[in-house]
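In response to reviewer comment 3 from the previous cycle, which asked for concrete evidence that the modeling workflow produces usable outputs, we include below a single protein chain processed end to end. The sequence was submitted unchanged, and the resulting structure tokens are shown without manual editing.
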Amino acid sequence: MRETLYDQIAANKRKTFIFIVITSLFLGALGYIVVELLHWGTAGYIFFGLFIVIYNFVLYYNSDKIALASTGSVPADPEEFKQLHNVVEEVAIAAGVPKPKVYITPSPAPNAFATGRNPQNAAVAVTTGLLEIMNREELQGVIAHEMAHIRNYDILLMTVVAAIGGLIVLLRDFFLRSMFLGGRRKSNRSSRGGGILILIGLVLAIIAPLFVALIRAAISRQREYLADASGAYITRYPQGLAQALAKLKQAYQPMAKASQSNAHLFIASPFGKDRFNISNLFSTHPPIDKRIERLNSLVV
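The workflow returned the following structure tokens.
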């Protein structure tokens, strides 16, 4: 049975909402346990509340700068990269969003990504290796995929996911240090309830990094499928992106500046894991062949 674009959008939004709710509950449980174990009372909740607000505020306004700097991307000169600027502008018009800032990532590995917090404050970056192997239709497909991430607010979603994930890990580390540097002693004097909280906190602390990785990978995989479908809708030419993905699979090279923290941003896995026809729970990208198959069967 074929899926329409709107079927895929609805399904992915449902899954994303569920993931965010579960992750938020996870974060709340960890924060509650830390405050209770340290007997900080109301002051502790206020402290964590302010910390979370400031943390998210800083990350919200700087996530694009962090992503671009971590990959060594620089602004694309409008004269030197005239075709790229033209393609980005025409795809932005077709998508109904402002033209994002255009960046070049100096790397022979063909790849691309989008970042930012909303369509008014977004950027698209492509590697020099990608420009060397793509024709105009294929480049349109890649840019349309990234434009879909912008239009669908995936860039904001991934910022939120990264923020929540980072908070969980920070809280986990804070809990462990507090427990071993003093919190444990305080808890030993408390009731049996304190021991139960420590046990629950330890379990949460141990599985937190695993849980964050699973959440991030699962959302990223679903968002890639959705961006493929949305990109095909923007250009009305799914074969352009399908051909581009086939080239990305064949021309894979490892990216020197890619890491686990930014791998989910790219159109194809910078580690080449999506070249195989199987994916696991920690994969940030679905298999390229599966994406091509979906594009070829999509009703636009």
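The first helix runs from residue 5 to 37. We consider this sufficient to address the reviewer's concern, and the full set will be provided in the supplementary archive.
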